[in-house]
Amino acid sequence: MSPKTFTLSDELHAYVVAHGSEPDEVAKRLTTETRERFPDDAGMMISPEQARFLTLITKVSGAERAVEVGTFTGYSSLAIARGLPPGGKLTCFDSSAEYTHVARRFWDEAGVSDRIELRVGWAENTLRELPPEREIGLAFIDADKAGYKLYWKEIVSRMRPGGLVFVDNALRGGRVLHPGDSADVRAVVEFNAMAREDDRVEIVLLPIGDGLLMARRL
Fold first, then answer.
1. Is residue 27 part of a domain?
2. Are 200 and 156 in contact (CB under 8 A)?
3. DSSP character for 22?
């Protein structure tokens, strides 16, 4: 089974990727360098079809203000930034200066660094520094799973009406059905249940990548 979309065979996943808009050279080099420099962590990157989805949904949503929690080497932030309109802004939160050093370089190469503000530190603290006003149009959460509830709390209260929140790894390779003693998977199960009961949003859990929870702020 494909490591990025567990419900698809490798062949069918390749077909899905091949029949979407092809990643450009910057995106290709970013993913290649990530796999070479961080082979044990490269699985934290989103898949090519997720990246294209994020760019298109950012454009369709009309979001001018976006937030990302969990930037890694910058593939998802690059995708979101490319979907923002002129003057749009993406604020990224990540705890690793090493990973995000790579991200900064590729943002520069792609010509989107002027749209991105990076805040390095623990998001549980830095997210609270965001303005309290409901002005965020799009958010993407893809960080430590134990922090999902907290990130959701800080972000959803700041989403504008109609704003979209995306939370990655909502299926954890199907293990949400049988989490066992995995604290990581249990955290996702608990988060999914909490999000489902949040009456501030309407939700769909999409079988994209490793599961993508999509919420629209009411």
1. yes
2. yes
3. P
Is residue 131 assigned to a domain? yes
Of the candidates 165, 166, 93, the residue with the CA atom closest to the CA atom of residue 126: 93
| Contact indicator for 196, 155 with CB cutoff of 8 Å | no
Q: Look over the chain and give the mean of its residue pLDDT values, rounded to a whole number.
A: 94
Q: Where residue 153 sits, what CATH number does that domain have?
A: 3.40.50.150
Mean pLDDT of 172-176: 93
Q: How far is CA 97 from the centre of its chain?
A: 18
Task: Write the pLDDT tens digit of every residue in 111-126.
Answer: 999 999 999 999 989 9
**Contact of 70 with 45, CB cutoff 8 Å:** no
Tokens 């959460």 belong to 141
Residues 119-151 pLDDT 10s: 999 998 999 999 999 999 999 999 999 999 999
Q: What is the pLDDT of residues 200-212, one digit of tens each?
A: 999 999 988 899 9
- pTM of the prediction? 0.94
List the domain range (segments joined by +) for residue 107.
Answer: 10-217
Provide the domain count of the chain: 1
Residue 86 has phi, psi (to 5 degrees) of: -55, 130
28, 74, 116 from 93: Cα distances, Å? 23, 11, 11
